[in-house]
Specification:
2 helices; 257 residues; mainly beta
Length: 257
């Protein structure tokens, strides 16, 4: 239900030819986006100095430290066609992964690539390469291990997406990165990839409120009504609307104000 707001303007001008209007930038119902990885090269992993190396064609996305030596493994996911407008307020954002294999209960760090339109992954532009260009937002997460094929939901990620909207405006594509630095050698977890089965690929859920309300508000109960007494030089104009609004007026009918 929308809130009723009464608007009042006191005009110390001649009453002749006054035009009253309203302008609203209201927060309505959130817009919901559900996007799923839709290309083989839009999910990938990379261990830069040991096994398992880089892949965007395997049936899993690794994170942690599956190798017996060397650095950690980074995972990454890219969603496209988001069309989040500039000025939006992000109300919610999370990812649903499908667990692949059993894995280990390990902590990893989640962050977004710091760009408004990231490109797909490759051996020269892997999750590892992009980690150095991540958002200020980053979140330590110990995944809630279950059984293979279980759906595992990420923590709330809206602050990271809001950072990107605030910095760049409109967002069309998004890359989430998972860093396994600090995980003991041989421990990791794995998520089902697009190549395992497109229906199991990671799903991104976003709810946002557009910065501009394009739906006209409903105006009612305009006061005063009828003819004002002769000689009136001041009047209080009031108008009720079905959402928060800003009152504006002009002294020339039909002219923008």
């Amino acid at each position: 239900m929308k809130r009723i707001s009464a608007l009042f303007c006191v005009l110390f001008v001649s009453i002749g030819g006054i035009s009253l209007g309203t302008n609203a930038q209201a927060q309505g119902d959130p817009v919901v986006i559900n996007a799923q990885i839709s290309s083989s090269s839009d999910d990938a992993y990379h261990d830069p100095d040991s096994w398992p190396g880089y892949s965007h064609t395997e049936n899993r996305v690794l994170a942690g430290n599956p190798g017996s030596s060397g650095q950690a493994t980074w995972g990454g996911w890219r969603w496209t066609g988001l069309a989040i407008p500039a000025g939006s307020t992000i109300a919610a954002a999370y990812v649903d992964f499908v667990q692949s294999g059993w894995g280990y209960t390990i902590p990893t760090t989640l962050s977004f690539q710091n760009t408004p339109d990231p490109q797909t992954f490759s051996a020269d532009s892997s999750p590892y390469h992009r980690w150095s260009a991540r958002t200020d937002f980053q979140l330590s997460w110990t995944w809630p291990k279950q059984s293979p094929d279980s759906v595992i939901r990420s923590p709330e990620l809206k602050d990271g997406l809001q950072e990107l909207v605030n910095r760049y405006g409109a967002i069309s594509s998004l890359v989430l990165l998972e860093d396994g630095t600090g995980v003991p050698a041989g421990q990791y977890h794995e998520w089902a990839s697009y190549d395992s089965a497109p229906a199991k690929a990671a799903k991104l859920h976003i709810e946002y409120i557009s910065g501009v309300d394009t739906t006209p508000l409903v105006r009612s109960n305009g006061q005063p009504t009828g003819l004002l007494p002769s000689g009136t030089t001041q009047a209080t104009l009031s108008l009720a609307t079905d959402e928060n609004a800003t009152c504006k007026y002009g002294t020339t009918p039909g002219v923008d104000y």
